[in-house]
Design a protein that fits this description.
About 70% of the residues lie in helices and about 0% in strands. Helix 2 packs across helix 4 and helix 2 packs across helix 5.
């Protein structure tokens, strides 16, 4: 029996729970914190991406996550022009808001690992390539340090809502 009565909602809830659980493994057990971390990092990515790529990336996100991605987006002023990892992490830190302290670098690593594990590899490569070099390096580091990176994970089509 479906929890919501609509498969699309059930899939996005299941996928979002999976993503939050994986983020929580890296930043602590509070799922509300994990939700804020996810939103802060994907919005920092969104604001740095060229508009076309930002829209394509957003379209690939699970439906529920897509809502936080587009929340308060002002595409007229995009993309932002920061060029360093420090500027990217500063943006994440500002976006984390009033939650318990989370290191922006840890937040970025956690979300990068989840995105790389569950989203289309070609899309991730495009997004990563659009980032400053030191942000790309952090992303590649996050992919290499993910828990159980050698385990059999569901493919992008299976894990996306």
């Amino acid at each position: 029996m479906s929890a919501t009565g609509l498969d699309v909602f059930d899939r996005t809830l299941q996928t979002t729970h999976t993503w939050l659980n994986e983020i929580s493994e890296r930043v602590g057990p509070d799922r509300l914190v994990a939700w804020h971390v996810l939103g802060a990092v994907i919005r920092a990515l969104r604001d740095r991406l060229p508009l076309d790529l930002a829209a394509h990336f957003g379209a690939e996100l699970p439906l529920l996550v897509r809502g936080t991605y587009y929340d308060q987006w002002r595409p007229a002023g995009q993309p932002e022009k920061y060029r360093t990892l420090d500027e990217f992490l500063l943006t994440i830190g500002r976006n984390l808001g009033a939650i318990r302290p989370v290191d922006p670098r840890d937040a970025a690593r956690a979300v990068f690992a989840v995105l790389s594990r569950h989203m289309n590899e070609g899309q991730i490569q495009k997004v990563r390539k659009a980032m400053p070099e030191d942000v790309r390096a952090l992303w590649l580091e996050a992919e290499g340090t993910g828990a159980d990176t050698g385990s059999a994970e569901p493919g992008p089509a299976e894990s996306r809502a």
